Amino acid sequence: MHPKSIAIIAHDNYKDSVVDWARKNQPILKQFHLYCTGTTGGRIAEAVEGLQVTRLMSGPLGGDQQIGALAAEKKLDGIVFFIDPMTAHPHDVDVKALIRLAIVHQIPMALNRATADAVISHLDPR
C-alpha cells in the first residue's frame, strides 16, 4: 500500500505558521508523502525531521498548477493551503483553479490552521 499524500502550500505571510503547524503535526505527517511548493517545502524539510517532502516549483511560477495536476490525477489525499486573504496575489487564478480541482475531485482541502487540523486528523493513517 502506498503512503497517503498531502500537498502543503503557504503564501509568504503564512510560511512561518505552516512550518509551525508541520512541526506540531510531525508524528502524523511522517506517515504521509508531502508535495510542497518551492519555498514552503524547503522550509518544512529544514525545520521538521523525518518527513518525505517532494519540492515542486514556487507557487506563482507553476507550483500551484503542479499541485493541481496531482489533484486531477487523484494522487493527493488532501491539500493544506495557508492562504493570505489580506494580500493580492498575481497568481489568484491558479489558486482558484486549485480550489476548483479539490472540489471536483473530492479532495479535502484546508485553508487555515483549524481546518488543517481537521483534515490531518481525518486522514491520519495510524
What layout of secondary structure does this protein have?
Layout: E1 5-10, H1 15-24, H2 26-29, E2 33-36, H3 38-47, E3 52-55, H4 63-72, E4 78-82, H5 92-104, E5 109-110, H6 113-123
Parallel strand pairs: 1-2, 1-4, 2-3, 4-5
Please supply descriptive tags for the structure shown above.
126 residues, alpha/beta, 5 strands, globular
Distance between the termini: 14 Å
Instruction: Based on Cα principal axes, name the global outline.
Output: globular
What count of helical segments does DSSP give?
6
- Low-confidence stretches are none
Rg for CA atoms: 13 Å
Task: Tell me the total number of β-strands.
Answer: 5
- What share of the residues does DSSP label as strand, in percent? 15-25%
Strand order in space, largest sheet: 3-2-1-4-5
Mean pLDDT: 94
Give the structural class: alpha/beta
Query: What is the helical fraction, as a range of percent?
Result: 40-55%
Order of SSEs: EHHEHEHEHEH
Largest sheet: 5 strands, parallel
What does this structure look like?
The protein is built from six helices and five strands. It is α/β, with parallel strands linked by helices and 126 residues long. Strands 3-2-1-4-5 form a five-stranded parallel beta sheet, with helices on both faces. Strand 2 (33-36), helix 3 and strand 3 form a beta-alpha-beta unit. Helix 1 (15-24) crosses helix 3 (38-47) and helix 4 runs parallel beside helix 5. It is globular and about 35 Å long. The two termini are 14 Å apart. The mean pLDDT is 94.
